[in-house]
Amino acid sequence: MGLLSFLTFPLFLSLLWRLIIVNANFPTTLEGPFKPVTVPFDNKTYHGNAIDLPDTDPQVQRTVQGFEPEQVSVSLSSDYDSVWISWITGDSQIGDDITPLDPESVYSVVQYGIEGSQMNYEEVGYSFVYNQLYPFEGLQNYTSGIIHHVRLTGLEPSTLYQYKCGDPYTSAMSDVFHFRTMPPSSPKNYPHRVAVVGDLGLTYNTSTTFSHLLSNHPDLLVLVGGISYADMYLTNGTGSDCCPCSFDESPIHETYQPRWDYWGRFMQPLVANVPTVLVGGKHEIEPQAEDQIFVSYSSRFAFPSEESGSSSSVYYSFNAGGIHFVILNPYTYYDKSSDQYKWLEGDLYNVNRNVTPWLVAVWYPSWYSTFKAQYREAECMRVEMEDLLYEHGVDIVFNGHVHAYERSNRVYNYSLDPCGPVYITVGDGGSREDIAITHADDPDECPDPSTTADLDIGSGFCGFNFTSGPAAGSFCWNRQPEYSAYRESSFGHGILEVKNETHALWSWHRNRDYYETAGDILYIVREPVRCLANQGN
């Protein structure tokens, strides 16, 4: 299927599918809270640990010459009329003796136009290289190819554009790619399909997720952390299946930066044509010399930080039609005196729910996952921020980190609440680490509270026993908690289709099924009169 065919999915099929969806008798959150459901783990369809694609795979090898662009991606700016185009030219280097490339040796130019017309518009951006340096003997350093970012502005809403990028003065230009802009912010305008997935990595399971994402034709892609999993490797390229237990003898948590290049090449057919939003998670921290973190993540991709009033690439916001997205990060300061918290207060205060009725928050570790893996490890973040999100009527929260799928009932402070958000964990993209199977409420599986806090999240210890409800006096429930509506240990991805200012269809798709088949599906329904009035908005 050609790129243009991918973006102009046959109209009659699209209309037919939407007609079926609109008239289907799917459950709604108004019928909740739902009785908790756990899908039994199916060992017959489980494929074991995901295996990374090797560096010899043609999908990850460098195929361009000289300064021809590769790893092309398009990222949203803060609103429909602007996007960022990013790419890399020149080859990276890793070893003891590296010499960074000169960014001034090549121009950063995007030529573009509305599909069907000439690409007569041109924008110039900026370029740089980044280094991943380790001041320890035996560890290899890395310097990237030349990274380019160009912002296109003045775009028309809901419009298909074509573009190519590179240096026209040396004939080092890319192939032609396409992207569709977001609709204007309005209670009647929404992107048709928002794909949401976390913890993709770069495995054979990732390949299946990638294929299903392409087939489901998203207008927007939200990657909820766990991107390249370069931090599952030492700098000599030796990999591991367990991130926290593999680097005991290393003076620092090493990463193998070429895995980022592999990931960028592999994902280009999707992220060069579908506006993509990236969320910084634990695997993107990647500490290096001088205590720098998130360097690769922040360098390779563009973020609407400045446009949304943020001073950081790890927390920011943007509009996609009538949806306002807020991206947060627990791996930088988030307490009430922090820059992140103050920015969030201001951002939420300025949201006009008459223009963007839907409010969606996204960050990496889940507050309400009931799996044993990463159970309540972000509790301090919840204590600091949950009240603020609830007061402003956040509708949906997307998380990753836990390598499974789980959807909550509407919940606030561990209690069922018809005005609380629906929390959805989608850390099931296919990463190298094993899929999560065990639940914290399984017999004899409740973790010791002292072992659950993530030191990268900081803010001390907050994992205390519950003080009320069926689990009062305990750290875990003895059955699936009532706030957990559905959970399953399978790889997959999700699709959010906002239909109007009150109804959004959420569907989750297992990798082992046909891509259109939904393993979990329901309408998430907003009740603004009931909830926003009670919450003071």
UniProtKB/TrEMBL annotation:
Signal sequence residues: 1-24
EC class (word):
hydrolase
Look up the EC number in the record and give it.
Answer: 3.1.3.2
Q: Which ranges carry the Purple acid phosphatase C-terminal domain?
A: 475-513
Domain Purple acid phosphatase N-terminal as annotated: residue spans: 69-181
Q: Which domain of life is it from?
A: Eukaryota
Gene Ontology molecular function: acid phosphatase activity; metal ion binding
**Calcineurin-like phosphoesterase domain mapped to chain residues:** 193-405
Q: Which UniProt keywords apply?
A: Signal
Q: What is this protein called?
A: acid phosphatase
Tell me the classification of the organism that encodes this protein: Eukaryota, Viridiplantae, Streptophyta, Embryophyta, Tracheophyta
